[in-house]
Design a protein that fits this description.
2 helices; 3-stranded antiparallel β-sheet; elongated; 247 residues; 16 strands; 2 domains
Length: 247
Amino acid sequence: MDKSIYIAMTGAREALTSMTVRANNLANASTTGFKSDYSQYRTLSVFGDGMPSRAYAVVERPGSDTTAGTFQTTGRDLDVALNGDGWLAIQTPDGKEAYTRAGDLKRSNDGIITTGTGLPVMGNGGPIFLPEYEQLVIGKDGTISIRGLGEDPLALTQVDRLKLVNPDKSTLQKGKDGLFHLKDPNAAALQADINVQVVNGVLEGSNVNPVAELADMISSSRLFEMNVKMMENAKSNDESSARIMQS
């Protein structure tokens, strides 16, 4: 059998993988704080007996687009968006830190501030506990102040401060959970950066460009169809060769 069928197979397989990445981006076009994933093709030469005259296709995910999404004003007191570079530190189920730009925060039944997906938000000394309140204000530096139930209307008490970090983006990678983690699993947790600022009552939307993602998805779909046709041609050539040998 002509080895071209294997090369066409890798092309079809990686085109399908690229379509999966694009479909995931499109599915999260309206997800708060979502960062789209890149997808790119490259070739790998096939080494072995003879000259490396053939090449397999490989799709790589070199990283994620960390540019900011559009801001949407909500007026909700627990909604925050990061103004400029920076990340919000949260606690993962295994007790480690991860980082996100999704600021759709909420207060759980036990008083812990969590993300929209239920993960605890980190403060100065761990997850932030928020007592019941009548008024809440989050300052530009992430400071959380409240007016408790029945307290003086003019008195605000500082509860904690959001842990805001701003590491080198090259040290972060996106995990399967959609959160960003340090590439070095043994690295210490990041220190808070006082220069990171937040905007209260605002959410950062997804940075996905639906038009560009759809165009790339169509391109990958056509590439998939082309490689499938190449496999069909390889099969037809193999059958023709077999008939000639039998005659």
